[in-house]
């Protein structure tokens, strides 16, 4: 169930029509099993179809805790739904000031690093 939620959550964050999915090599079969239901849920909620291509050339590290990373638009948009990214999110949120502003030493900080856009 947790694996389904990780994949579905990443797809809902991405909301792109063409997506590349990376996972650990040992998780390929699980992802292939979960993907159709995740895509169905996404289409029902969003109203658009998403084509997901599993990247079989570049896997997440085998020693990682699992999860998925999605990319779109040639890597300009990325969503990470791994245990490591969730721990980073918690660490970043621990820096929130008393007012709840996302600052550290007066500098803005990302409070939700899952969706990253690049140039």
UniProtKB/TrEMBL annotation:
<dbReference type="Pfam" id="PF01991">
    <property type="entry name" value="vATP-synt_E"/>
</dbReference>
<dbReference type="InterPro" id="IPR002842">
    <property type="entry name" value="ATPase_V1_Esu"/>
</dbReference>
<keyword id="KW-0813">Transport</keyword>
<dbReference type="InterPro" id="IPR038495">
    <property type="entry name" value="ATPase_E_C"/>
</dbReference>
<comment type="similarity">
    <text>Belongs to the V-ATPase E subunit family.</text>
</comment>
<feature type="region of interest" description="Disordered">
    <location>
        <begin position="97"/>
        <end position="119"/>
    </location>
</feature>
<protein>
    <submittedName>
        <fullName>DHC_N2 domain-containing protein</fullName>
    </submittedName>
</protein>
<dbReference type="GO" id="GO:0033178">
    <property type="term" value="C:proton-transporting two-sector ATPase complex, catalytic domain"/>
</dbReference>
<dbReference type="GO" id="GO:0046961">
    <property type="term" value="F:proton-transporting ATPase activity, rotational mechanism"/>
</dbReference>
<keyword id="KW-0406">Ion transport</keyword>
């Amino acid at each position: 169930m947790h694996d389904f939620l990780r994949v579905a959550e990443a797809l809902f964050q991405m909301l792109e029509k063409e997506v590349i999915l990376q996972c650990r090599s040992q998780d390929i079969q699980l992802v292939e099993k979960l993907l159709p239901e995740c895509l169905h849920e996404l289409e029902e909620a969003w109203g658009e179809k998403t084509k997901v291509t599993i990247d079989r050339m570049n896997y997440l590290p085998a020693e990682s805790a699992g999860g998925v990373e999605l990319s779109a638009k040639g890597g300009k948009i990325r969503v990470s739904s791994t245990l490591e990214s969730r721990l980073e999110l918690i660490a970043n949120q621990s820096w929130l000031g008393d007012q709840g502003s996302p600052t550290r030493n007066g500098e803005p900080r990302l409070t939700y690093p899952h969706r990253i856009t690049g140039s």
